[in-house]
Automatic annotation (TrEMBL):
Family: Belongs to the isochorismatase family.
Gene: Isoc1
Source organism per UniProt: Urocynchramus pylzowi
Residues in Isochorismatase-like domain copies: 103-251
Coiled coil: none
InterPro entries xref list: Isochorismatase-like_dom, Isochorismatase-like_sf, Isochorismatase_domain
Pfam hit, one: Isochorismatase
Protein name: Isochorismatase domain-containing protein 1
Taxonomic classification: Eukaryota, Metazoa, Chordata, Craniata, Vertebrata
Length: 286
């Protein structure tokens, strides 16, 4: 029963044996579940044992080979099966060490209709604009999403999207859309995502969790991220930090990306920081 695929299961869920290290726990997933749901289930079952700073591969037990194989592309759970999460031997030894060549900025749902509802919205717009200016100076790709723009409006006018690699509408809360995954696949050597926007406990949180599930390192910019409720925001940031996501600030991000006073863009980045640093009190509510 636990050794491989058997006959299709009835009902809306399929039994799956989830294996990690010396553990093996039976559970179930919805019929037709794919890679994302398998990763989420592994996190729910073994989250306290999984080192999120490592990269992993999901493998499926194949009866025809009598051993595990890497999860086939586009795999969907249609019958009882046995899967395992395998940590790769190579660890990410440069944890938190941002470089422009391996970084992408994600700007999430900074839209007009959110202006009256989101706390400190004017301040996160200002910081978001500074981050996008920095991205243009340093040649960092920018991916922008807008949550149901037909009803919630486009990105606010203060945010200059000139040169953005993608500006996409969405209804899913997470920014990890097929078009976004395709765009990331086109950028060689992507390791780090700098994420900011709204709302911290919804779209930001769900995006960050999906990204680390794919082995990417996520930096959330605390002074460019907010919610309607400061309690929701605070608990989301605490949860994400415990998961291995880096919660940081815009100034730390920009100066880490230039890394050296002798960097050819240092003066311009320094001027950006000096020109727009709102004293909102937002960081006191992290």
């Amino acid at each position: 029963p636990g050794s491989g695929s058997c006959a299709p299961a009835g009902g809306g869920s399929v039994p799956v044996l989830f294996c990690f290290s010396v553990f093996a726990r039976p559970s179930s997933v919805p019929h037709g579940a794919g890679y994302e749901l398998l990763i989420q289930k592994f996190l729910s079952l073994y989250g306290d044992q999984i080192d999120m700073h490592r990269k992993f591969v999901v493998q499926l037990f194949a009866e025809e080979w009598s051993q595990y194989i890497d999860l086939p592309k586009g795999f969907l759970v249609n019958e009882r099966c046995k899967v395992r999460l395998v940590p790769l031997q190579i660890q990410i030894t440069t944890l938190g060490n941002l470089t422009p060549s391996s970084t992408v900025f994600f700007c999430c749902d900074m839209q007009e209709r959110f202006r009256p509802a989101i706390k400190y919205f004017g301040d996160i717009i200002s910081v978001g604009q500074r981050l996008l200016q920095g991205a243009r100076l340093l040649g960092i790709p920018v991916i922008v999403t807008e949550q149901y723009p037909k009803g919630l409006g486009s990105t606010v006018q203060e945010i200059d999207l000139t040169g953005a690699k993608l500006v996409l509408p969405k209804t899913k809360f997470s920014m990890v859309l097929p078009e976004v995954e395709a765009a990331l696949a086109e950028i060689p050597g992507v390791r780090s995502i700098v994420l900011f926007g709204v709302e911290t406990h919804v779209c930001i949180q769900q995006t960050a969790l999906e990204l680390i599930g794919r082995g990417l390192e996520v930096h959330i910019v605390a002074d460019a991220t907010s919610s309607r409720s400061m309690m929701d925001r605070m608990f989301a940031l605490e949860r994400l930090a415990r998961t291995g996501i880096i919660v940081t600030t815009s100034e730390a991000i920009l100066l880490q990306l230039v890394a050296d006073k002798e960097h050819p863009k240092f003066k311009e980045i320094q001027n950006l920081i000096k020109a727009s640093a709102p004293e909102s009190g937002l960081l006191s509510k992290v």
